[in-house]
Design goal:
This is Corrinoid adenosyltransferase MMAB. It contains 6 helices and 2 strands; from the N terminus they run ββαααααα. With about 210 residues, it is mostly helical. It has a single domain, classed as Cobalamin adenosyltransferase-like (Hypothetical Protein Ta1238, Chain: A), CATH 1.20.1200. A two-stranded antiparallel sheet has the order 1-2. α1 runs antiparallel to α2 and α1 runs antiparallel to α5. It is globular.
Length: about 210
Amino acid sequence: CLHSPDGDDPDTNRPRSDRAPRIYTRTGDAGFSSTFTGERRPKGDRIFEALGATDELNSAIGLAGEFSSEKGHTFVEQLYKVQCMLQDVGSNIATPLSSAREAHLKRTSFSEKPILELEQWIDSYSEQLPPLRAFILPSGGKSSAALHFSRAVCRRAERCVVPLVQAGEADPNVAKYLNRLSDYLFVLARYAAMKEGKEEKIYIRPDP
């Protein structure tokens, strides 16, 4: 994270606080990083694996949102809301319950409300879609394909979070949210293809 440099700037002889904070901190050069609770853990720790997957998911959804915005899809606002929720997902993951104090828990708690909201969105779009009669391949235009890609990244993020939940280090609602989110992204991908009049490619078994 960003920090405020201290000391004098040798080039200007002004306090460094007069300058913008640096992007780099050098605190992770030895292969360790900090959780929200202040623990220093190796960057290969499963907490950082889950955080990285969640960050990648957020980026993938951001790309899907840009493609969808170009097509005028009204669900772009929902994607933006999801991106904000993923920041909260990351906060919860970065706060291992084994070392969290009450103040940490209050700031990073994750409720069931966003899960229920996703379910409402899923039901709403599902009612407008044609029945699913075959395996759908990621396709259906740029918006749809990007949403399918986001769904795949979401599944990986969920796989990273589940062991943390099972170990009592993360809130079960975080894993539930990611599970519903992958379903939402799948349904939304189909909806985007339908609204754009794009054909969904289906799996065809190759001849033996």
